[in-house]
Amino acid sequence: MSNQTARVPRTISKFNPYINSTTDFLLTIIDPIANPGYRHADRLGLTAIEMTDWDAKKVYWKDTLYPKWSNANTKTKAVNLEVKNKIKSFATFAEKILTRMSVNPAATEADEIMFRFKINRDPRTVPTEPISEQCYATVVALGGGDMKIGCKTSHDASRPSKAAGADSVEHAYTIIDTAASGGGIPLPGEPTKPAAKIPANAEDGTTLLQAIKKASHTVHFGVANSGKMLYLFSRWYNSSHPELAGPWSEVVTVRIM
């Protein structure tokens, strides 16, 4: 029996209370007076994005999909198939989070019962130090809006390779059309166009790319962005321990072709 099957129930009768009770538990504030806003999700190490996704999956299941399946008038083959697929996709989504919970020092026996995992206190399997290595990205335009990105470390600048403790790389980017945002000289009679805001750092209004497993990879920004400027920040990332992600790089600026 796999960990996914053991942890996340696959039958509808067991999955329904599981997704509802675990979501409500994670969103519960532990001590509203002593520590307002601190939830079980925070105690167990979920990121804000993970908790938002977990809750969204529960809301769709509870408010939309499960009522369709429960009603004889709306229960169709298509609904049955969607129920099956949603349970499977939630199990896949939750697995890495449940694994992190199982090695979290804050996990309790009550958490074991609630989430159906076994606590693992083996320190050899739990990284605790943040990734310190800087990510050095080189970007080459391939044409058609495609950009080849190679990520290197200071220890091996000869070829793309991942830093120790990282299983992927994360990018944050902004695309600016300089010609449409004050980058060119207006014709007589045309109003001056306001200059676009260039990001000062990776959190400054950028778009986050989902973690990419290969140190060398191609990102498709689309033909519509050809000619525009790409402002790219990169960092080494551990998808099992996002809290240990490395520092963001300096911005890399290149024109998309």
Architecture overview:
This protein has 257 residues and is of the alpha+beta class. It folds into two domains: 3-123; 136-255, Immunoglobulins (Immunoglobulin-like). It is built from six helices and seven strands. The chain has helices spanning 3-7, 12-27, 40-43, 48-70, 77-103, 109-115, and strands spanning 136-143, 146-152, 168-176, 207-212, 216-220, 229-237, 252-255. A hairpin with a 2-residue loop joins β1 (136-143) and β2. α2 (12-27) runs antiparallel to α4 (48-70) and α4 packs antiparallel against α5 (77-103). The longest helix has 27 residues, at 77-103. The termini are far apart. The model is unreliable at 1-5 (pLDDT under 50).
Compact description:
The chain has 257 residues and is of the alpha+beta class. The protein is built from six helices and seven strands.
User: What order do the strands of the largest sheet run in, or round the barrel if closed?
Assistant: 4-3-6-7
What is the domain total for the residues?
2
Number of helical segments? 6
Helix-strand string = HHHHHHEEEEEEE
Tell me the major beta sheet. Answer: 4 strands, antiparallel
Q: What percent of residues adopt helix (DSSP H or I)?
A: 25-40%
- Global structural class: alpha+beta
Q: How many individual β-strands?
A: 7
State the separation between the terminal residues, measured CA to CA: 49 Å
| Mean of all residue-level pLDDT scores | 88
Low-confidence stretches: 1-5
Beta-strand percentage range: 15-25%
| Rg estimate, integer Å | 23 Å
Shape: globular
